[in-house]
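[Structure tokenization] protein backbone as discrete codes

[Encoding] learned vocabulary of local backbone shapes

[Begin record] amino acids and matching fold tokens:

___
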Amino acid sequence: MNAPSRLDLSDLRVLVVDDEDDIRLGLGRLAASVGAQVEEAPDGRAALGVLDRWPADLVLTDLMMPKMSGGQLLVEIKKRQPGTEVVILTGYGTVQSAVQCLQTGAAHFLTKPFDNEGVTQLIRRLGRQVLARRIPEADGDATLLAQDARMKPVTELIARVAQSSVAVLIEGESGTGKEVIAREIHRRSAVADRPFLAVNTPALPDTLLESELFGHERGAFTGADRAREGIFAEAGGGTVFLDEVSSMSAPFQGKLLRVLQERVVRRLGGSGDVPVEFRLLAATNRDLEVAIRKGEFREDLFYRLGVVRIFVPPLRARPDDIPLLANHFLRRSAGTSLGEGVEAPRISTEAMSALLGHDWPGNVRELENALQRAVIVCTDGVIEPWHLGLRSSGWEPAEAEEEDMDYSRSKQRAVEEFQRQFVHRALEGARGNISRAAQSCGMTRAALQRIMRQLDIEREAYE
């Protein structure tokens, strides 16, 4: 990326959650020092209340708190606001729990006591990543990247439908890149010079969704101090993309059907119809035909949305795309997180093997998050498997690896793997200085050296 000026950290919203006033104050000041807007909360429940009125981009939360733990808060945040990044704050005694939070979606964890410079660097890096997502896709970022043979039918169908004006329904699991497909259709269309407007329908209740799409008159609801056109009118002949349409309520499905049939909208609080012109693309991670049989989705709307249907295979079904996408996300994350002119780390052979061996339940989005995390935690220019935070990369032993393994051997393997990753992180952070690494771990130098000998870890690899 070559426009760091667009990533103004004064737009970054950081929520600090800790039951200790001095830690909350200190972290808040560190976040404010990089220019971010800061809110604080003394516990998880209070944090959720803040998030309801003030959607944060980044949450720094203590792991051990009364009323609601940081791990529980993480789960709730990812349900409500999946795009919010969460950093877990932990003491030495709860590091293993913090590592488990990485598997639940945490971006990183920090051990107490904190290094102020390390905290501010992390906030800057994560902040740039979050803000970069708000920038409209440009410079080729929206271009579909696919080389696996299983994606050939998708790319061929995109080429055929792009120049037409028919409605397209894009189907596939969450995170497979359905919006990228929609943007590719728009990019190749005859209206590519007109707006592409995307709406995440599950994020909005009916009233707000209706206002967003149809518009509203002044005074139509509390806070509507001026009239506004809806997205269908703003499109001006361009493309409207509705993501996860299966989440729409039955009443709203009926309203959307009328718009598609008659090409008019009625603003909230309005009394007349307004003609609109747009090309509709929609996406779903559910089987709408099953939803129709259950009475959860209108059959007539389904046929309006899916004149042409494109199914996007999950990432696990197209492994040849993984290296291509991984290197793309690596370059983009490095440019965003490390700044202009900083050389991106490279992916080691072992890390690429871990990427190829992972089953990717979160699909392309999970792969992107793994590379973003790796860029942040990697300090020596080489991304190793443990930087990725994947179960199959060694953060957790594979449960089915040896079905006949007894409890003692399973426990021993899990302990050794945890020790290995923990020591790797400590030595990386200390750049090979054993005394500093031991201090950050809360153990003696001799104890750390003993573990290093047991695991055959060489200090020189981290200098």
In short: The domain at 4-132 is CATH 3.40.50.2300 (Rossmann fold). The mean pLDDT is 83.
